[in-house]
Amino acid sequence: MAQQAYTTETADGGSGPERPGSRLRRLAHRVTDGWRGDPRVWRRGVVLAVLALLLALVMLLHSRIPNRIGNLGSLTETFLPWLGLAVPVLLVLALVRKSATALLAILLPAIVWLNLFGGLVTDKAGGGGSGGDLMVATHNVNADNPDPAGTATEVASSGADVLALEELPGSALPVYEKALAGTYKHHAVVGTVGLWSKYPMTDVRAVDIRLGWKRAMRATLATPEGPVAVYVAHMPSVRVKLEAGFTARQRDTSADALGEAIAHEPLKRVVLLGDLNGTMNDRSLNAVTSQLRSTQGAAGSGFGFSWPASFPMARIDQIMVRGAEPESSWTLPRTGSDHLPVAARVKLDTAS
C-alpha cells in the first residue's frame, strides 16, 4: 500500500512533504491568529471567568452548601461528578469569545475536578478480575421487574459467592428462590431484602432502620477464612421536587439507624450490600460511610454508576467493607431492573 503524503507549499511555489503534526500547528495558528495584538483578549469573557470560579468553589466547598433549604447540599453531592461537564462547555465558549482571562480561569475547576475524581477515571484493578477471598454482588431487582427468573439467572451467572437482592416483592419471591436454588445452598429473606450464599448462614435477623417495615437484615457467614457479618439494606427512596427540593429525611433517618447498628457489630469483618439511595459523597450517609470503605472507590473501574440502568448517572447501589481489602469492583450487565447490579472481590483481613 502506498504511503499517503501530506504536502505543503514551499518558498518557490512548489510543494513538499508535510509532517502530520504540522496540521495541528496550523489549526492552532488559525484559532489564535485573531488573538494576536488584540488588547481585549484579557478584558473579554469576564462573565465566563466568574462562572468558572463559581464552579470551582461549588466543587471545592460542596460540604459547606447547607442542607437547610431543600437538602441542596446532598443534592449537589449526589451528582457532583457531573459538574465536570461544565468545564468543556466553558472552554468552548472561552475559545469562541477569544478570552484569555476565561481560559486561565477554567484551569481552576478542571484541576479541582481532577483532584476529586481523577482517581476514579482510571481502572484500579480491572473489573471482574480474579483474586480475593470473597466475591459479593448486590442488586435492586425492582418490584415491577417483568422477568424475575431471567434477572436471577443473570446475576447468579456472575459467579458471586454471596448475593444480596433488594425490593423483593412477595409475589415474585418463589421465582427468585427457584432460580437461585441451584447456585446457592443457603438463603434468607427478611421483609423485602434477601441474602443468598454458598456458605452457611447463622444469626440471621432484621435490622431496625426506623421505617416501620423490614428493609434491612444481618447474617453471619461461615467463610473458609472465618466469620463475616453481612448487612443487606434498602434505604428509603428520595425525591426531587420543585416545591420541596431534595426530600430525603426518611432516608437520612434510616442511614443513621443503620450506621448505629454497624457501629455495635461485634465482628471485625463486615460487608454491607444494598441500595442506599445515595452516593458516597452525600454527607447524609456519613453514619454509614465513615465506618466502611467503598469497594468502588478503593478498587473500582471508573465511576461505577448504577442508576438508572438505561442511562446510569449515580452510584446509589453500594458495596462497602470493614476488615477486608477491596481487590476489584464493577457493574454487571443490565437486567430487567431499573438498577444495574454491582459486584466486588475482597480479600478478608486475616487479623480480624
Automatic annotation (TrEMBL):
Q: Which residues cross the membrane?
A: 45-63, 79-96, 103-121
Task: List GO molecular-function terms, semicolon-separated.
Answer: endonuclease activity
Compositional bias annotation for Polar residues = 1-10
Q: Which organism is it from?
A: Streptomyces pyxinicus
What name does the UniProt record give this protein? Endonuclease/exonuclease/phosphatase family protein
Q: Pfam families per the record?
A: Exo_endo_phos
| InterPro entries documented for this protein | Endo/exonu/phosph_ase_sf, Endo/exonuclease/phosphatase
Q: Which Gene3D superfamilies match?
A: Endonuclease/exonuclease/phosphatase
The source's domain of life comes to Bacteria
UniProt entry keywords in alphabetical sequence: Endonuclease, Hydrolase, Membrane, Nuclease, Transmembrane, Transmembrane helix
Specify where the region named Disordered lies, as residue ranges: 1-23
Q: Taking every annotated instance into account, which residue ranges of this chain make up the domain Endonuclease/exonuclease/phosphatase? A: 137-339
